[in-house]
C-alpha cells in the first residue's frame, strides 16, 4: 500500500516521548543522579477517595449478572452528562443540552480527532507556542506543507504568543476556518480574560470560523471572575466547541476521561454551500468510531462532582497551585523571568543568557538534574522559553527550587 506522505513532514518523535527518551539516556549514563521530572504535565497525587469508592462500587456492579453492563451509550451515561451540565455549566449560568455533550477517553483524542470534521483544505490558525496535538493532527491530515527552516508549516496561520501580548494574541485581520484557543494555556500558563475571549468570539462570527476552545485546565483558574467556559461569552454557541478533561482536574491522566461540547447551533458550510450541523457530524463520527468511555471510569468521573469529590479534588488542585507558587518564587529569586503559574499548573520562563530551549534542557538536566520541556517543542515562538510543570511532590518541588538557586542563583 502507499503510506500517508504527510507523516514525513513531522519530526520523528512526538515531543514528550522524545523528552522521555533523552532523560532515560541521561539517567542510564548517570545512575547516581536523582532526576526530578517537571517535564510532561502528569499528575502525581493518587485518585481522590470519593473517586476510588465510586470506581470500586462500579467494579462490584460489573461482577454481578443483575448489574453488569456491556456497551454503554456512546455519548456517555446520563449520570455523568447530567452532573457535567449542572456543575460545569448551569452553576455558571450556562445552558448546555445533554445531547451537546460527548463523553470521551480524554481531550488529547478529542483534539486530535476533531479535525476530521474540517474540509481537507481548511485554513487552520493556532497560537504559537501551542499544544502540539492541534498542529500535528492537521499536518497528518495534509493541511500543511513540509516545515520551513523556521519550523513553521506553510498553510498554517501562526499567532505568536509573546511577553508583549501577555501570551494572549488578539484576533488577526484575516479570517481562517478554524482557530485553536487554550485557556488556561498549555504551555504558557496564561489565562484569557473575558474581553479577550469576547474579541475572539466576535472575530469567529465575523469570519464564519470555528473556535476549538480547550479548557482542560479550567479548574486551575484562581479568580472566579475569569471565564471558565467559552459559552460564558454571548454568541459562542454559534462559533465554538469546547474540550474539557478530568486528567488535570481530578488526576485522570492514567484513567482517561474527558468530554467535548458541540452546540446544536453550530453550522459549517458543506460542499454545495449548504449549512451543515457540526453536532450531527460529530455525533456520526463519535458513534461510528467510539464505543463510549468505560462504565467504571464514568462512575469515577461522576464522583468528582459529589460534595466529597469536589472538596478532595479541590484540595489536590490547591496543592499543585502551591507547588506552582513555590516554583515561581524560586525561579524569580534565581534571576529568571517567569510567567504563568497563577491560573495554571505550568510555569513559563525565559532561558538564561540567550541559550536555546534545547540547550537549556541539556544544561538543566546536566547541572541540576531537573527535567522540563523546551519551549521550542511547542512551536517556533517558544524558542528561548522553557516550561516547568507544578505536578510533583512538595519535597521534589522544594528540592528543585533549591537546586535552581544553587546552580543559577
Ligand atoms: C503536557 O504536558 O503538555 C500534557 O500533559 C500533555 C497532555 O495533556 O496530553
CATH topology annotation of the largest domain: Aspartate Aminotransferase, domain 2
Q: Detail the poorly predicted runs.
A: none
Give the amount of beta strand, in percent: 5-15%
Order of helices and strands: HEHHEHEHEEHEEHEEEHHHEEHEEEH
Give the total of domains. 2
Bound molecules: D-malate
How many distinct helices? 12
Main traits of this protein?
single chain, about 400 residues, alpha/beta, Aspartate Aminotransferase, domain 1, Aspartate Aminotransferase, domain 2, 2 domains, seven-stranded mixed sheet, four-stranded antiparallel sheet, 15 strands, about 35% helix, binds D-malate
Task: Please give a structural write-up.
By secondary structure, the protein is of the alpha/beta class. The chain has two domains: 5-45 and 308-408, Aspartate Aminotransferase, domain 1 (Alpha-Beta Complex); 52-305, Aspartate Aminotransferase, domain 2, CATH 3.40.640. It has helices spanning 15-29, 49-62, 78-89, 107-113, 132-140, 194-207, 247-250, 278-289, 295-303, 307-333, 357-368, 394-408, and strands at 36-37, 101-104, 124-128, 156-160, 178-182, 210-214, 240-245, 258-261, 267-269, 275-277, 338-340, 346-350, 370-371, 373-374, 385-389. The chain has a seven-stranded mixed beta sheet with strand order 2-8-7-6-5-3-4, sandwiched between helices. Helix 2 packs antiparallel against helix 9 (295-303). The longest helix has 27 residues, at 307-333. It is globular, with a radius of gyration of 21 Å. The mean pLDDT is 97. Bound molecules: D-malate (MLT). D-malate (MLT) is lined by residues 40-42, 108, 186.
Amino acid at each position: 500500500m502507499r503510506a500517508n506522505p504527510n507523516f514525513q513532514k513531522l519530526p520523528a518523535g512526538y515531543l514528550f516521548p522524545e523528552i522521555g527518551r533523552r532523560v532515560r539516556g541521561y539517567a542510564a549514563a548517570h545512575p547516581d543522579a536523582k532526576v526530578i521530572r517537571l517535564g510532561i504535565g502528569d499528575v502525581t497525587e493518587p485518585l481522590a477517595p470519593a473517586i476510588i469508592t465510586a470506581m470500586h462500587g462500579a467494579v462490584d456492579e460489573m461482577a454481578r449478572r443483575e448489574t453488569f453492563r456491556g456497551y454503554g451509550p456512546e455519548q456517555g451515561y446520563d449520570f455523568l452528562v447530567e452532573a457535567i451540565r449542572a456543575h460545569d455549566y448551569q452553576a455558571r449560568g450556562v445552558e448546555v443540552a445533554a445531547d451537546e455533550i460527548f463523553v470521551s477517553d480524554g481531550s488529547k483524542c478529542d483534539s486530535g480527532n476533531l479535525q476530521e470534521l474540517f474540509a481537507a483544505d481548511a485554513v487552520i490558525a493556532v497560537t504559537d507556542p501551542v499544544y502540539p496535538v492541534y498542529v500535528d493532527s492537521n499536518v497528518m491530515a495534509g493541511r500543511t506543507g513540509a516545515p520551513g527552516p523556521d519550523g513553521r508549516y506553510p498553510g498554517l496561520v501562526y499567532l505568536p504568543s509573546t511577553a508583549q501580548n501577555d501570551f494572549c494574541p488578539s484576533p488577526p485581520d484575516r479570517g481562517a476556518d478554524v482557530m485553536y484557543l487554550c485557556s488556561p494555556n498549555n504551555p504558557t500558563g496564561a489565562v484569557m480574560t473575558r474581553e479577550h475571549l469576547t474579541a475572539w468570539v466576535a472575530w469567529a462570527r465575523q469570519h464564519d470560523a470555528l473556535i476549538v476552545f480547550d479548557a482542560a485546565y479550567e479548574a486551575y483558574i484562581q479568580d472566579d471572575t475569569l471565564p471558565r467556559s467559552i459559552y460564558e461569552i454571548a454568541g459562542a454557541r454559534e462559533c465554538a466547541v469546547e474540550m474539557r478533561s478530568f486528567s488535570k482536574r481530578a488526576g485522570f491522566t492514567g484513567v482517561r476521561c474527558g468530554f467535548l461540547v458541540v452546540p446544536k447551533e453550530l453550522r459549517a458550510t458543506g460542499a454545495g454551500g449548504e449549512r451543515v450541523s457540526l453536532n450531527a457530524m460529530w455525533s456520526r463520527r463519535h458513534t461510528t468510531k467510539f464505543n463510549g468511555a468505560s462504565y467504571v471510569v464514568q462512575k469515577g468521573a461522576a464522583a468528582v462532582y459529589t460534595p466529597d469529590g469536589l472538596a478532595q479534588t479541590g484540595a489536590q488542585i490547591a496543592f499543585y497551585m502551591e507547588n506552582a507558587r513555590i516554583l515561581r518564587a524560586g525561579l524569580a529569586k534565581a534571576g529568571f523571568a517567569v510567567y504563568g503559574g497563577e491560573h495554571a499548573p505550568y510555569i513559563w520562563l525565559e532561558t538564561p543568557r540567550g541559550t536555546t530551549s534545547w540547550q537549556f534542557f541539556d544544561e538543566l538536566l546536566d547541572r541540576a538534574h531537573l527535567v522540563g520541556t523546551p519551549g521550542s517543542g511547542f512551536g517556533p515562538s517558544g524558542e528561548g522559553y522553557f516550561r516547568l510543570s507544578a505536578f510533583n511532590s512538595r519535597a521534589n518541588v522544594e528540592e528543585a527550587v533549591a537546586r535552581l538557586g544553587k546552580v543559577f542563583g
